């Protein structure tokens, strides 16, 4: 059974492990810790007693930014990314956000397809935004307008 719960500081070692396995340029523990501030909404996805993924987002006024959404490599392809994204959008609506922003690596076609299927539209491109030893990649800036009741 899938459950989504707020991220706690005690879960950061597990989150960091998933991040290091799944991310092209993993975040540091310090960066995760900085996202535990009050204006963030961060959640983890559990399948029974196994932590499978997470997202980190921040609200600023009536907008939300999705900073990170990651599913453990062994759990990918099961729809968990979509589940996390839908939860994030619902949380943004509950907090009266009218728009959601995100950046995605231009080469991450699976994530781009997921975001487009949820209604996100391309609004910009940041050339060579992602830098690593493997080279540079552009960031696509995407947004979604939310109807808040």
From TrEMBL:
Keywords: Acyltransferase, Cytoplasm, Transferase. Acetyl-CoA binds at residue 108. It is an enzyme of class 2 (transferase). It is found in: Cytoplasm. Its main location: cytoplasm. PROSITE patterns: GNAT (PS51186). NCBIfam families: rimI. This is [Ribosomal protein bS18]-alanine N-acetyltransferase. It comes from Alkalimonas amylolytica.
């Amino acid at each position: 059974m899938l459950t989504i719960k707020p991220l706690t500081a005690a879960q950061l070692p597990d989150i960091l492990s998933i991040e290091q396995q799944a991310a092209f340029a993993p975040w540091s523990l310090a960066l995760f810790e900085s996202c535990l501030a009050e204006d963030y909404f961060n959640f983890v996805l559990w399948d029974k007693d196994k932590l499978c993924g997470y997202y980190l987002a921040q609200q600023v006024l009536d907008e939300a930014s999705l900073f990170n959404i990651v599913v453990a490599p062994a759990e990918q392809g099961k729809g968990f990314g979509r589940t996390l994204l839908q939860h994030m959008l619902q949380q943004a609506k509950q907090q009266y956000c009218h728009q959601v922003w995100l950046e995605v690596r231009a080469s991450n076609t699976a994530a781009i397809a997921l975001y487009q299927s949820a209604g996100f539209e391309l609004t910009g491109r940041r050339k060579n935004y992602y830098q690593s030893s493997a080279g540079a990649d552009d960031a696509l800036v995407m947004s979604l307008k939310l109807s808040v009741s």
